[in-house]
Design a protein that fits this description.
mainly alpha
């Protein structure tokens, strides 16, 4: 079965989608652990859920960094006017 990957316009879009998928996986493992027939299986599923939660944290931190970097870059670019006359006092 071929996997369909949506088109993304930016890394931010990719990370936002990945966060959604990781949260879904975390919920899946958590709910599966509640139905586990043995303690060993429950423990394994909860370990998997914890990994997914760590992924959410990692991706969320990266997303915040990217958004912050983009805000700074947009501020720099918005203050740049290539048609402005150079300051003659310099």
């Amino acid at each position: 079965m071929k996997r369909v990957i949506p088109e993304y316009s930016s890394l931010v879009d990719i990370i936002e989608d990945a966060i959604i998928k990781e949260k879904d996986a975390w919920r899946f493992y958590t709910e599966a652990a509640e139905m586990a027939p043995t303690d060993d299986i429950r423990e394994f599923l909860l370990e998997m859920a914890a990994m997914e939660k760590e992924h959410v944290t990692l991706l969320t931190n990266k997303l915040e960094t990217l958004r912050s970097d983009n805000t700074v870059m947009e501020g720099i670019l918005s203050s740049y006017n290539p048609e402005a006359e150079p300051d003659s006092d310099s």
